[in-house]
Amino acid sequence: MKKLDELPHIYAEEATPLVKKLVTIIESLQERIQCLESNLQEMRDEIAILKGEKPKPKFKSSKMDENTNTNDDDNDQTLKRPGSGKRSKTLELTIHEERVVPLEEPAPPGARFKGYRDVVVQGLVIKAHNVRYRLECWQTLEGNLLTGKLPESLQGHHFDPVLRSYILYQHNHCHVTQPLLLEQLREWEIDISAGQIDALLSAGKEVFHNEKNELLVAGLEVSRSITVDDSGARHQGKNGYVTQIGNDLFAWFASTGSKSRINFLEQLHAGSITYHVTDEALFYMKEQGLTATMRQQLQLQTTSEISTHKGWQTHLEELGIKGERHIRIATEGALIGGLLEKGLNRDLAIISDGAGQFAILLHALCWIHAERLIHKLIPVNDEQREAVAHVRDQIWKLYADLKVYKERPDTSLISEFESRFTAIFTQITVYETLNQTLKRLNRHKDELLLVLHRPDIPLHTNGSETDIRDFVKKRKISGGTRSDLGRQCRDTFASLKKTCRKLGISFWQYLLDRVSLNNTIPPLPNIIRNISISGASP
């Protein structure tokens, strides 16, 4: 990328308001040029890939969280295997078959047999295994026909639980597309059609959908904090969005056509949605600027909760609340009131990357995303680069100290942290764009420093970003969904897969357990509740 001409140094006596304004305009134009050149480079990279060439290397993302770890000794210990000796790689393997290998030539005279030297070779048996069930048929004297019954897990199916679980696992865990699944299974001599694969992936999955829906109920019930994120999710050829909600115990996904605050609040209801005008709802409406007259109407005329969207819209029309903004604020407030009346934890902290729809109730911001705003700045001279580096170093040190504070909270240090924050984010540098970014972040001081009063909450949303990355990968491979059922299955199995991983449960074993109707693995929501009660790590 071509380096832009640097601005000359401006002395303090020359920095008139007009000069400062012109410098700001020049900096913004230079950044605009850099962005356009970056977009041009992306298109060149795409053309290079299409031609079979290599694109230009990209810079690595910020390592702020990794570079501020203070427990280096502990991290080194986690990389070492337990025990002082070398671990046997095959000690815990189940041996399914033994084969004795004799000498190629008879042992010479006088040789003594010394037993065997074991060599374990791991393998996998991949082949079709078809079973013909012969159901006995008997006819009674009365003419009634009695027939033997198939196992419950096979009733209504022509494929056994292992094959059905394998199809679900490959598609939802390994992101194998349906055409490739069809080709693979036919190569293994499985007589199956594209329609049958589609049905096995989406039809009759109510048990999974119900367990997924209960995940959010259980997760919100036992959690004091959640992290949230969203991303694109195409459906029926249109751009939509997927919302992720989760923490160390669970992950939950829902795809919709909107990512508004109303949509997020509806997702938090985790099932039936209720509208309730409570004191908390009225306080929210006041903060959002709803007029006192409208608030008074809602307070006096709304005597009970409303359980349908249509009923709420009719209620607002009867009260004369018709403006789009007024309807939105009233609806958001009523949804918050409904959430709290249903028992949502009032101390629940919501940590986000700064997207406006998540800024409700007790809200905290991700420090990684906050620092990224400064990391993404494009300085055009050495003075600006030094200013950015200096500010980032200050933020990293503050972040590292906050991580230590989380482990060993000390309320006497709160005022010190607040003073350091103010000093960092109100400083004036030679880089005007940096100054504006710091000023913007300073307005979110309470959300960035919520950890001082709630050391139990995370400082970042890395967990949500990791969870949603798998969803994005699937979108890149398979595109969007075509049916509402397909979209529901995508959300359901993404939620169950990620939750199994957090709980230390094999997703393959989970699928096989549910499809075979063994149900030896307890419902995931019950496991979440039990972990919360016992206080054990998942």
**Strand order in the sheet with the most strands:** 5-4-3-6-7
**CA gyration radius, whole angstroms:** 30 Å
Structural class: alpha/beta
Name the helicity range: 40-55%
- The fraction of residues in strands falls at 5-15%
Which whole number gives the mean pLDDT? 89
**N to C succession of SSEs:** HHHEEHHHHEEEHHHHHEEHHHHHHHHH
Number of strands: 7
- What coarse outline follows from CA principal-axis ratios? globular
Low-confidence runs of at least 5 consecutive residues: 74-84
Q: Outline the biggest β-sheet.
A: 5 strands, mixed
| Helix count, DSSP H or I runs of 4 or more residues | 21
Structure description:
This protein has helices at 17-50, 64-67, 72-79, 161-172, 178-187, 194-202, 206-222, 261-268, 279-287, 292-301, 309-318, 324-341, 367-375, 382-407, 414-425, 432-442, 445-448, 462-478, 484-503, 507-515, 524-534, and strands spanning 137-139, 145-147, 225-232, 241-246, 251-256, 349-352, 362-365. It has 538 residues and is of the alpha/beta class. Among the domains are: 17-50; 158-203; 206-356 and 466-497, no CATH class; 367-452. The strands form two sheets. The chain has a five-stranded mixed sheet, with helices on both faces. Strands 1-2 form a two-stranded antiparallel ribbon. α7 packs across α19. The radius of gyration is 30 Å and the shape is globular. Residues 74-84 have low confidence and may be disordered.
